[in-house]
Design goal:
Elements (H helix, E strand, L loop, with lengths): L2 E3 L6 E3 L1 E4 L10 H14 L3 E3 L10 H14 L7 E6 L14 H15 L4 E6 L8 H13 L3 E7 L3 H13 L4 E7 L11 H8 L2 E5 L32 H6 L1 H14 L3 H10 L6 E4 L4 H8 L9 H11 L1
The protein binds NADP nicotinamide-adenine-dinucleotide phosphate (NAP).
Length: 318
């Protein structure tokens, strides 16, 4: 597994990281979860991305991950880079959501308890809060780092202007922003005119999520058939709907043709295209089983896609 430097920091991240948003909740098979963590470590995928609300239900992915660490993987803690986030709805009442200092620091404490950890490697503000002063949200990240409960601070889904402001504030406190996390895939290139150049300009790491558009870019939905075990069929997956799959079908079909012409799978095409971007530090996948994990990991360390293919991809996705 090749590792890339995260911005100007001392941190190296694997080209492929594993996110636990889905597939690690209390309804998922513990043995499959354990196998994926074990296989990740074997493959050199040492970065595990969590958030307080991952599951489902919220909290259960951290709980499951904590149990696995305690049972099997705790001895490898120093070889692992573990992140969590707060800022989405977690508990009722005025303090269970968004970007206040109260919510973020209580959320971090809860995450550490669920994972049975003393610290996380990165603590993120999961999303910007339009009602809370950015100084307060950033202040909570600074305190998380100064208290030793997080080694680094991160931002997720911030628009460029607010990202720059947050980075300035963090830098003033000598707690530089390590990394920004945002969506980037062949079906959603919106970051190319915003976040991508912003992170490049500031030399801050970029970890890009949903690289396979939640599975659409594996080709599993081509032909209009939804596999019974796929995410689009899950009632607890509100962000990948049948309508969404149908709406992107024509573009996915064109990309699948280009992958076939290049002699690689659509999954490989989608992941290698992202890894061809110098601004991308790590590609943050989700996997439901070891087979998917291995398949995705195989995209790391490959040679660059040829220029004519990159041009064809631009034409197909512009
Ligand atoms: N910061 C944020 O707000 C935010 C938002 C979203 C995600 N994230 C992070 O990004 C991570 C990844 O997001 P994502 O789950 O949307 O990523 P993704 O890699 O685009 O989608 C993962 C899904 O694609 C399918 N898949 C993956 N590899 C496959 C393969 N080789 N062959 C066939 N199917 C495959 C599986 O779906 P099936 O179940 O259908 O098999 C899997 O659950 C999350 O876990 C989380 O850590 C962060």
């Amino acid at each position: 597994m090749p590792y890339r430097r995260c911005g100007r920091s001392g941190v190296l991240l694997p080209e492929i990281s594993l996110g636990l948003w889905h597939n690690f909740g209390s309804g998922d098979d513990p043995a499959a979860c354990r196998a994926m963590i074990a296989e990740s470590l074997e493959l050199g995928i040492c970065h595990f991305d969590l958030a307080d609300n991952y599951g489902p239900p919220p909290g259960s992915a951290e709980q499951r991950f904590g149990e696995l660490l305690a049972q099997d993987f705790g001895a490898h803690r120093d070889e692992m880079f573990i992140s969590t986030k707060a800022g989405h709805l977690m508990w009722p009442g005025p303090y269970g959501d968004w970007g206040s200092r109260k919510h973020l620091l209580a959320g971090l404490d809860q995450s550490l308890r669920r994972m049975k950890l003393d610290y996380v490697d990165v603590f993120y503000s999961h999303r910007p809060d339009p009602e809370t002063p950015i100084e307060e949200t950033v202040g909570a990240l600074v305190q998380a780092v100064r208290s030793g409960k997080a080694l680094y601070a991160g931002l997720s889904k911030y628009p460029p202007e607010l990202f720059h402001r947050a980075c300035d504030l963090l830098a003033e406190e000598k707690v530089p922003c390590l990394i920004h996390q945002y969506r980037y895939n062949l079906l959603d290139r919106s970051c190319e005119t915003g976040m991508l150049p912003a992170t490049e300009q500031r030399q801050i790491g970029s970890i890009v999520f949903s690289p396979l558009a939640q599975g659409m870019l594996t080709g599993k939905y081509l032909g209009g058939v939804l596999p019974a075990d796929s995410r689009a069929q899950r009632a607890d997956s509100p962000f990948l709907t049948v309508e969404r799959v149908a709406g992107d079908a024509a573009r996915v079909a064109r990309l699948a043709e280009l992958a076939a012409e290049a002699g690689i799978s659509l999954t490989q095409l989608a992941l290698r295209w992202l890894l061809s971007k110098p601004a991308v530090t790590s590609v943050l996948i989700g996997a439901r089983n070891v087979r998917q994990l291995r398949d995705c990991a195989a995209a790391a360390g490959q040679e660059a896609l040829p220029d004519d293919l990159l041009t064809a991809l631009d034409l197909a996705t512009a």
